[in-house]
Design goal:
Blueprint: H1 3-14, H2 19-31, H3 33-38, H4 40-45, H5 48-52, E1 57-66, E2 72-83, E3 89-95, H6 101-117, E4 123-129, H7 138-152, E5 161-164, H8 171-185, H9 205-223, E6 232-236, H10 240-251, E7 255-260, E8 264-267, H11 274-283, H12 291-294, E9 299-302, E10 313-316, H13 325-333, E11 338-340, H14 349-357, E12 361-363, H15 365-368, H16 371-385, H17 391-415, H18 422-441
Parallel strand pairs: 3-4, 3-5, 6-7, 6-10, 10-11, 11-12
Antiparallel strand pairs: 1-2, 2-4, 7-8, 8-9
């Protein structure tokens, strides 16, 4: 049995009940085969792959808080500090009822390669809790965030581990957590990113993941002789990533026709009215169904279905495993030419392979959604400098970073004889830097 297969088998045996983690490891290690084959003896001696799939540290802790009825509640908190070979641990916090250790490990593992691809000095980590902010009052959110940070603050720091937002964690939650960290530690430092602009946040961080996704997409399309202008785009999700991906796609002349949330999805053939969506989601924290109040001619459907719409480009921006084989078949049948992942691992392995085999340009999330963490790293730089850059400066740096990530991924894919296989290219380019750093630092 080859080295890659041995390690995949070990991961499955050692981490039972963590299917998302197994999926992420398989996806990455399978595409690293050409590199591993070329260095097998050295990697085996150094147990490089075994070390890569084992987090440096994983924390699991009790989060206790009191709800508005005066009743005590208990959730489980997690932080997986996966790999610090190239910099302090960095990665978001997810608050959602379906969070468990396996989900956090899959996200932390992906984060290692994503962070490496940005070219910035950040290691990989991820955290969160099975607490679901939906339907909770502001006071309950604050109580939860303070309790969560009371424990987490022992293990993080501006040069140690710098968490950020993810699903369910936006500016409000980061604010409460930052306040609690400062109160307990007595130090004002850039320990979290995605902070508010009045206390160390970076301009363009809110927009960064969605904008970065479309910068990457635009570069990939140009490289393949396609103009984004005039293209019809299907987007899933209606959160931070989906909203700003829609905004940038519209700015570049594309027409976005769908958005969704966990209850249903809207189809607006005339193009999504983003101001309406921002008001529903960012101001009122409502449901996407309310879109019909603004645009009565649009259609709303309960459940899933975004990928059944005819489009040139699909941008999955909601959650993991939301684009499956049947969805991929529908996209291909409808003439879709490109899929770029805004969410983390939204496309299953079978769906990814089907899309690639049918000539669809496929941008893997660890490359195409890296703009968020890259801009978080720029926030860390500004905090260290005690300076704030303008929106235009940050946005220009973000654009350069995304173009570079595309080029690195395309170059690695070509070097290993599979041009246009950006999954392979991104995994290899992300891995090489981390592997070199791990080997240099010894056992
Ligand atoms: P938000 O919480 O802002 O939005 C998430 C959106 O996806 C919401 O519309 C939500 O619907 C929907 N959604 C979440 N879970 C499910 C589900 N199980 N089924 C259907 N719909 C679901 O999160 P973000 O936009 O920040 O994150 C979206 C994705 O992008 C995630 O995969 C995240 O890891 C990834 N990502 C985010 C980055 C960032 O900077 N924010 C950076 C890189 C990646 P509802 O409101 O009903 O819950």
């Amino acid at each position: 049995m080859g080295y890659v297969d041995e390690v995949i088998e070990q991961v499955i045996a050692k981490n039972p009940g963590e299917p998302e983690f197994h999926q992420a490891v398989k996806e990455v290690l399978n595409s690293l085969r050409p590199v591993v084959d070329a260095h097998e003896e050295e990697y085996r001696r150094e147990a490089l792959l075994e070390r890569l799939v084992e987090p440096e540290r994983q924390l699991k802790f009790r989060v206790q808080w009191v709800d508005d009825q005066g009743k005590a509640q208990v959730n489980t908190g997690y932080r997986v500090q996966f790999n610090s070979a190239i910099g302090p641990f960095k990665g978001g916090l997810r608050l959602r009822d379906n969070v468990n250790l396996g989900v956090i490990k899959f996200l932390g593992f992906e984060q290692i390669f994503k962070n490496s691809l940005t070219g910035l000095p950040i290691g990989g980590g991820k955290g969160g809790s099975d607490f679901d902010p939906k339907g909770k009052s502001d006071r309950e959110i604050m109580a939860f965030c303070q309790s969560f940070m009371t424990e987490l603050c022992k293990y993080i720091g501006a040069d140690v581990d710098v968490p950020a937002g993810d699903i369910g964690v936006g500016a409000r939650e980061i604010g409460y957590m930052f306040g609690q960290y400062k109160k307990i530690k007595g130090v004002f430092e850039g320990v979290l990113t995605g902070k508010g602009l009045t206390y160390g946040g970076s301009l363009a961080r809110t927009e960064a993941t969605g904008y970065g996704l479309v910068y990457f997409l635009d570069e990939m399309l140009k490289h393949n002789g396609v103009d984004i202008k005039g293209k019809t785009v299907a987007v899933s999700g209606a959160g931070n990533v989906a909203i700003y991906a829609t905004e940038k796609a519209q700015q570049l002349g594309a027409k976005v026709v769908t958005l969704s949330d966990s209850t249903g999805w809207v189809y607006d053939p005339e193009g999504i009215d983003l101001q309406a969506v921002k008001e529903i989601k960012e101001v009122r924290r409502g449901r996407i169904k309310e879109y019909l109040n603004y645009r009565p001619n649009a259609q709303y459907t309960d459940g899933k279905g975004v990928w059944s719409v005819k489009c040139d480009i699909a941008l999955p921006c909601a959650t993991q495993n939301e684009l499956l084989l049947d969805d991929a078949k529908a996209l291909v049948a409808n003439g879709c030419i490109a899929v770029a992942e805004g969410a983390n691992m939204p496309t299953s392995i079978e769906a990814t392979e089907y899309l690639q085999q049918n000539g669809v340009l496929f941008a893997p999330g660890k490359a195409s959604n890296a703009g968020g963490v890259a801009t978080s790293a720029l926030e860390m730089t500004q905090n260290s400098e005690r300076l704030s850059w303008t929106f235009e400066e940050v946005d220009a740096k973000l654009h350069d970073i995304m173009v570079n990530i595309f080029r690195k991924s395309a170059e690695a894919a070509e070097r290993y004889g599979q041009p246009k296989n950006y999954v392979l290219g991104a995994n290899i380019a992300g891995f090489e830097k981390v592997a070199n750093a791990m080997l240099a630092q010894g056992i």
